[in-house]
Amino acid sequence: MTLIKSISGIRGTIGGKVGDNLTPVDAVKFASAYGTFLKNTLQKEKLKVVIGRDARISGPMIHNLVVNTLIGLGIDVIDLGLSTTPTVEVAVPLEQADGGIILTASHNPKQWNALKLLNAKGEFLSGADGAKILEIAEAEAFDFSDVDSLGEITINDAYMDIHIDEVLELPLVDAEAVAKRKFKVVVDGVNSSGGIIIPKLLEQMGVECVKLYCEPNGHFPHNPEPLKEHLGDICKLVVEEKADFGIVVDPDVDRLAFISNDGEMFGEEYTLVAVADYVLSKTPGNTVSNMSSSRALRDITHKHHGNYQASAVGEVNVVELMKSTNAIIGGEGNGGIIYPELHYGRDSLVGVALFLTHLANLNMNVAELRASYPQYYMSKNKIELTPQIDVDGILKAMTEKYKTENISTIDGVKIDFPTEWVHLRKSNTEPIIRIYTEAPTQEAADTLAIRIVNEIKAVAGI
């Protein structure tokens, strides 16, 4: 089944049967549920929603369906057209809108698309609000407007430029210092909207930009998740061009990865570490990442005399903990930078601008910068179980086995050992336990993962 309904939105593959895939009927149904939720909750005479999309092939079709569904509900739409997730998040409060929808399946392949749903702050909906939308969709409790009360569309294609301006105006972004360094950077925009907005940002910061896959046609030239095994072309081009580093974003530009000047991966986990290092050096404070993210952020935070905390996995959970701890920067180890000075959402533009400013202030290249940080290595694995196996029972047994260690059960089971950790999480959609480990060497991370896998199999009797 390739239609996934969750509290954060709906995603699925294009085509196929209604209810099993993201068909036009499903797109209309969930747009109707979201619009109805806003009307029921806010009880305003006129509502306004911002909509943008990434460049994937199905984007225009899904975009037209969603926009016109909201119009049919009597809701006005600010249509950003081709955009990015963080751009829509920035636009919602600037437009004083009541919500927003980003049409993107993020790092998923081209056959996927999704509706990501925002509140009036431009932040992802809470779990409770997401659950209400799913209930409305299930009941199909929609009440559309009559002909005299239809919504209106306002097209505004200036928001990518506005987003860039907002980033450049941040106090910790120093475009002049960056321009003086005359950096040369290769950008892989995976043929989506990042291929437009990242080069524009670089040019305004005085950086020479070498474009790779920056045509926003939705034909992803490689798997769009910015992982090492997908990025051979840019790693090679950074070396050939003698570039200072490379930038990779996913299709909706909320995940950011760097390639060092030697053509090696800087490491998605270390995107947040490097940016946080710079931010904390100028504005000391607290940080947050999720439980599956590197311990390196904790180390950097402590170096700057701040307090680090880990949230459950998921951007909504990271943001909630950031707010309650007054964190000045946070995010996820998948290359997601959340900098509240601009907005509470993962934003590759903020990450790029802060990283460039950081580099401009240092007398070292990107490979040397990476080597200066605490060295950790991760191993990511999963065990597929039969539906009959009690996954919760397995996690409880592992918690009991390691009860003398530092354990958190906020999100699955996280066991913190003195020099390494393991995080066990069950899938919400299939009988799988995901196993993340981190240690000071790759061998130690792999060895810990193998040990935990074998222990889980012993408990499960497989």
Automatic annotation (TrEMBL):
EC number: 5.4.2.10
Cofactor names: Mg(2+)
SUPFAM superfamilies, per database record: Phosphoglucomutase, C-terminal domain (SSF55957), Phosphoglucomutase, first 3 domains (SSF53738)
Gene Ontology annotations of biological process type: carbohydrate metabolic process; peptidoglycan biosynthetic process; UDP-N-acetylglucosamine biosynthetic process
GO terms for MF: magnesium ion binding; phosphoglucosamine mutase activity; phosphomannomutase activity
Keywords of this entry: Isomerase, Magnesium, Metal-binding, Phosphoprotein
Domain named Alpha-D-phosphohexomutase C-terminal: residues: 396-453
Residue ranges constituting the Alpha-D-phosphohexomutase alpha/beta/alpha domain according to the UniProt record: 8-142, 164-263, 270-376
UniProt xrefs under InterPro entries: A-D-PHexomutase_a/b/a-I, A-D-PHexomutase_a/b/a-I/II/III, A-D-PHexomutase_a/b/a-II, A-D-PHexomutase_a/b/a-III, A-D-PHexomutase_C, A-D-PHexomutase_C_sf, A-D-PHexomutase_CS, Alpha-D-phosphohexomutase_SF
Any one GO cellular component localisation term in the record: cytosol
Enzyme class: isomerase
UniProt record similarity statement: Belongs to the phosphohexose mutase family.
Name by which UniProt lists this protein: Phosphoglucosamine mutase
Naturally occurring in which organism (per UniProt): Flavobacterium silvisoli
